Amino acid sequence: MNERDLGAWILPQPKNKHHWVRIPKHPGARTIPFGYKECEDDPAMLDPIPFELEALEKAKIHLKQYSLAQVSNWLYKTTGREITRDGLRKRIQNEQTRRRKAAYYRNIAKRLHQALLKAKEYERALGEEGDESIFDRERYVSIDARAREYLDSVCDE
Known about the structure:
Blueprint: E1 23-24, E2 36-38, E3 45-48, H1 50-62, H2 68-79, H3 85-126, H4 138-156
């Protein structure tokens, strides 16, 4: 049998899909959220702790199989930072709420852009395009530009 040298196979490495960013500190908050610490430079900002945030992402997966109390204990043993089961539940619910809101607003921006394009098309078909067209006014131009800019930024992610 003829053996061929296939060379070294290099498997594609997974991309780091998490990009942790600084977040503003809530003025009325008593505690710092799990996965963040106070910024030394700016006391109004919180710096991410990647190790804790990655452990929190794994904890979300573990919640499909284990209870909140068990997962919060696992987080404490893994990171050394305590989080209660109620704190974990609240954190996950807040993230889900924010994710749903973001999806809702992206959908609204997309529908707004489509509606503006459709209105422009109807005006052109009716022959009402001219100096007094609503699409030449500053308000329309700024709304359309902001919607297009938002959609472009969302599509890049």
